[in-house]
Amino acid sequence: MSNKEVKAALKSARDAIRNKQYKEALKHCKAVLKQEKNNYNAWVFIGLAAAELEQPDQAKGAYKKAIELEPNQLLAWQGLANLYEKPNQTDVKGDLADVYQKLLELYESGDKQKWCDVCNKLVELYHQEKKYLEVAETWQKLIRMKQEEGAEKAELHQLWKKMIQLLKDSTRNQDNKTGQLLLTAFEHALHSADTVPGEDHQNLYKDFIQCLSKFPHEVARLEKACDDMMALYPSMTYPLEVLCLHFVQSGTLSEKALHCFSRLLEMDTRSGTGIIGFGIKCLKENKYKEAVKSLTEGLQKTNQCPAAWYYLAEAQMKIHEHRNAVLSCNQALEALGTPEGPNLRWKNLAFQLKAETLIKVADADAAEEAIKALEQIVDGSSDPVISALRGQAYLNKGLMDQASKVSQELLLSHPELAEAHALQGFIHYSQKNYEQAEKSFLNAIERKAGIAEYHQYLGLTYWFMCDETKKDKGKALTQFLKAAKLDSYLGSAFSYLGNYYRDIAGDKSRARGCYKKAFELDETDEESGTAAVNLSVELGDMDTALSILNEVTEKARPGTAKWAWLHRGLYYLRTGQPSQAVVDLQAALRADPKDSNCWESLGEAYFNRGSYSTALKSFRKASELNPELVYSVYRAAALEQILGKYENAIATYQQILKKTENYVPALKG
């Protein structure tokens, strides 16, 4: 076949393809290849015809042969791209990307429009594969090409916005290079915006700040972006909200942070983040009750701030609301979810605070939960403070051997750690080894003088040590005073001071004040409440006694606060108010239905009210619960006599006289 015949055959093949006679085209091409086996166009036409005849493998082979012959010719690459783009082609995306890359190379110095078309296709392909770095780098090439061609500012603005759109999901991967390219796209889009300030520009800025907040290492950039947006849009609270949230989550409480919290609340008094910020400020200023109030209110308004739950737990811990603090720690842990980056630090802190709080609850179940919380702390086993907490939890659970082992190891490895000496002190104190406990607590205080608990336990050590040696308890008083000064919310310290002033100093007035303070701080401390009421009565101050009792009974749920109902019921009984006495004594019995003395008092109240039948039932109930209550048996007999049940009355009187021969009221009856 001559050169002329080859050209004619190729022309026939091209015409056949144009007329969709693909088999005919293949015949012509094969005839050419018999003569010229390396004919580029023949291989390209075979690829085209085979593709149309649904013979992809043959088509692919033909195109690749053509490329092998002429690697920098466009036709075969275009044909291969068209083949791979067909819907029935699977698992070829990697190959297609390589083809597009080659086409970009070939178009670069020629057809710019086709270069842009291929570039768009390649970006779309990378985006489908979630190859965000390749998306970013390829799209940047497109923008550079447009810039070199002198594209308008508006067109470039749209291209930067498109890049942001393409990369918006990439922040989940936290790939630093892709992240930097995304942030750069935001900055270019903001600078190329037409209308500034304007609604689109404002929304773009919001998206930029939201994106920055996902990159923990871009703190300076985030702060600058928020400051710049606030300068452009002074009435918008969004950048300030983000900045305040950033300060809360990062644990920063600089002057700038405090200023931002105040400014946000001035602009929007209902801002959850602003209220949380104010609560943290109160916490740092030791205004713990205000902190609890603000943090609780702020958290009701926003759920975007896991760290705020930790701060709330810390504030609750400071005012010894231990159960609430545990619940807040749980909320923090739930809100933090899977710990990554900064969240891991917060999660460790929340587990530690939860364990500390549970140890303060001081029962075996709480101790078990504390041990589990400590086990969740990442790298906690290497932290001596965590080890000391674990030792305390073992002690609370009654695992003395484990607690002692932890204590001994800590004292050897960290002899300067206050917590190690305190743990040893707690162990000695629980074993009533008061002299050793004294040494340990003094060692702990020498290393950390500002811990109220150490002073309180040293005070208790002196108190019980003095019981044994009959010495003066002044040393105990000094330590209780120090504890109360260091922690004005430590109710138990005030209770111990009350014991000292009542039992040792004989100062009823001062003792009453201490008990009252202890009870105000801890309303579950019935012993202090009762002592405050009894001393008020002894001091002739019934108003104070009643105000305490009224406050407790107003808040009490049914079946609780027996001591308060009983005390007030007895007061009403003494002062001739039997109807009120009946109500209060009934409430006391709902809390403890087996209190025989309470039943006896209720019988007396019914009797004074003139309700004889009910009084009789109450006295009988009292004597059933405690047959030794002779007075209740006598009162039942007297009531039977009043009610005309003489035979029963006589039998009851005789029953009393069998036990107590000379019981005069029964003889008279």
Automatic annotation (TrEMBL):
| Keyword Repeat set for record | yes
Q: List the protein's name.
A: TTC37 protein
Phylogenetic classification of the source organism: Eukaryota, Metazoa, Chordata, Craniata, Vertebrata
Q: Name one Pfam family in it.
A: TPR_19
Q: Where are the TPR repeats?
A: 40-73, 562-595, 596-629
Keyword check for tRNA processing, yes or no. Answer: no
Coiled coil region boundaries: none
Organism source for this protein?
Loxia leucoptera (White-winged crossbill)
Q: What InterPro entries does the annotation carry?
A: Ski3/TTC37, TPR-like_helical_dom_sf, TPR_rpt
Q: Name one GO biological process term.
A: RNA catabolic process
Question: Which Gene Ontology cellular-component terms appear in the entry?
Answer: Ski complex
Gene that produces this protein: Ttc37
